[in-house]
Amino acid sequence: MELIKNPNLPFMSWRKYGYIFSGSLVIIALFLISVKGPRLGVDFAGGALVWVKFEKPIDVGDIRSALTKIGQEQASIQRLSGTNEFVIRSVTKTDPDAFASSVLEQLKKDFTDNPIDLRAKETVEPKISQELTRNTIIGVFVALFLMGIYIWFRFDFRFGAASVISIFHDVLITIGALILTGREFTIVVVGALLTIVGYSINDTIVISDRVRENRKKVRGISFVDLINNSINETFSRTILTGSFVIITLFLLLFLGGPVIADFAFTLIVGLIFGTYSSTFVVCALVTEWELKLPQKKK
Q: Would you state the pLDDT for residue 273?
């Protein structure tokens, strides 16, 4: 199935605009990370999560008013779509279990005519969360290293190095978007970031594989034309695959409820830039490298 028949777009002629666009977004993301910083969820900062179900309908504002009485007006309150169930999260450095108990007691006290059913109560101690943060960072860097090694051996060193840079580009921009929108960093979001790493590499592999095939089949053309031809030949596949995945994620974002919203949002941003970076980061950097330091033809 081809969405666009025989495209012939000069992608590499636009690579300088890509550098400006990507560079600007990366600088903004780094600024947000250094100045504002991520909003850590209970998985990383330590805290508590309480999931309750009310028998009758109730407003989020009423719940927040009740939490204000125990000094938890800043707690995150999320209604599960179409239900009377609420997830209450708070980053607390005191006693997470005491927080969960105080929330339940206050809600039962303020809403005596609206019975509450406790669905889940989770606590994360600060010591455990610090270990989780460290292991998560190590896991991300190990994944990046192994992906780069794979691309290096599968294709060549230049594509491997450019792919690692591309992944950093995608992850940084996605983290910047999360900070800008005030979304929490939880273990679910980390899972989405690792998914982005895999998707970005997968899209790069498709284009890189076509470049390798065309390098053997097509002779007498410039490296820029070789890259352009390879991108154009995989363009329909890239658009179709990316579009269907992103449409599905938008449905999850708007219809899946608050529990899955951060996960869906992270993937949407990451997959858009993962698709973009395969061309305007990986291929652009490899092209620039080849034009300045041509490889010897085998």
A: 94
What is the domain partition of the chain in residue ranges?
11-41+128-292, 47-124
> pLDDT digit string (tens) for 70-117?
887 777 788 887 788 988 888 766 666 777 788 888 998 999 898 888
Q: Hey, how many other C-beta atoms are within 10 angstroms of the C-beta on 297?
A: 6
Phi, psi of 3 (to 5 degrees): -75, -40
| Mean pLDDT value across residues 115-134 | 75
Q: Tell me, what's the pLDDT at 24?
A: 96
Top-level class of domain 11-41+128-292: mainly alpha
Go through the chain and tell me how many residues it has: 298
Three-class secondary structure of residue 3 per DSSP: coil
Instruction: Output the furthest CA–CA distance in the chain (Å, rounded).
Output: 81
Asked which of 42-46, 177-181, 260-264 is least confident by mean pLDDT, the reply is 42-46
Cα distance between residue 194 and residue 192, in whole Å:
5
Instruction: Decide if 261 contacts 44 (C-beta within 8 A).
Output: no
Report the phi/psi class of residue 219: left, alpha or beta, with left for phi > 0 and alpha for psi in -120 to 50: beta
DSSP string for the chain? --SSSS----GGGGHHHHHHHHHHHHHHHHHHHHHT--EE-HHHH-EEEEEEEESS---HHHHHHHHHTTT-TTSEEEEPTTSSEEEEEE--SS-HHHHHHHHHHHHHHH-TTS-EEEEEEEEE-HHHHHHHHHHHHHHHHHHHHHHHHHHHHHT-HHHHHHHHHHHHHHHHHHHHHHHHTT-EE-HHHHHHHHHHHHHHHHHHHHHHHHHHHHHHH--S--HHHHHHHHHHHTHHHHHHHHHHHHHHHHHHHHHS-HHHHHHHHHHHHHHHHHHHHIIIIIIHHHHHHHHHSPPPP-
47-124 — its CATH code? 3.30.70.3400
